[in-house]
Structure formats: C-alpha cells, structure tokens
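Quick start: what a row looks like.
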Amino acid sequence: MADLRISHIELDETTIIWRNADIEQERRIAIFDLIEENSFKPLRAFAAGHLGPYHLRLSVDDGRLGLAVTDEAGLHLETVILGLGRFRRPIRDYFAICESYYQAIRRATAQEIETIDMARRGVHNDAATMLLERLEGKIETDFPTARRLFTLICVLHIKG
C-alpha cells in the first residue's frame, strides 16, 4: 500500500548563512507541520515502484532548487531540480513582508498586524501556486504542502 508523504525533511545547512530567532521559528513550524500532514508523490520514483514514505532534502545551488528524494532506508530515488528565477520576486516580497510583520508584532495595533499578515498570506499563497505549477509532471503534492515547502525554500535563501 502506498504511503505518499514526506516522513523526514532536511535542509542543506551549508546553504543557510544566517537566520534570526523569528526565521528559525518559521523553519521549525514549517517542518513540524509538513511532517504532521503532507501529500507527496515523486512521479518517477512512484512509477519505479517506490511507494513511500519519502525523505526529502532541500538545497539551493547556483540559482536552482534541488529536491533530493530518498526512501526510508536512504536509497536515493531521484532529484528534482527547479530553476528559481521565477521565485526571486516572491521570495524578496515574502522577506520584506515578514520583516514588517515581525516588527509590527512588537509595536503595532491588532488591525495593522492583521493587514500585514493578510499581505504575507497572499504572497505565500501565490508562491505556493507557482511551486505547484513548477512541480507539475515531476511531483504531485497539495496546496498546504506547497506552502510549507515555499517557507523552507525561503529559509534556504537567507543571506544575512
């Protein structure tokens, strides 16, 4: 029986140069939520008879996102590479809005915080939709999983 989910996720720590406590909390929440509930079907691995669950390692190298998929025993199944050019603006916008959000939490009114959070969710949702489009034909996943993966992609882009 297929178990089409990610059971373990790892970020290439050499990619992450700097992060603050707020970003570290985002990372922890995204990983926890992703492991708790996700839908993940790497199409080539699945077609070859690997029915999950899967381990996933995310890395960024030379402007490309690598999604290395292994089975639970550590056998490499496939690596999906995505160009990140189309994600530059959403990542930049997401960082800017998150910075505003973290500052607002410390000093703004509830209504101001809610307005910033709505903008943050909008950017996040648009980027998740874009990620789903880029994964089409490679990995089948759902919207909540794509949102959490986008958060982790952003963490990989922190340059200090």
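That is the whole record. Strands lie at 6-11, 40-42, 54-61, 64-70, 76-83, 139-141. The mean pLDDT is 89.
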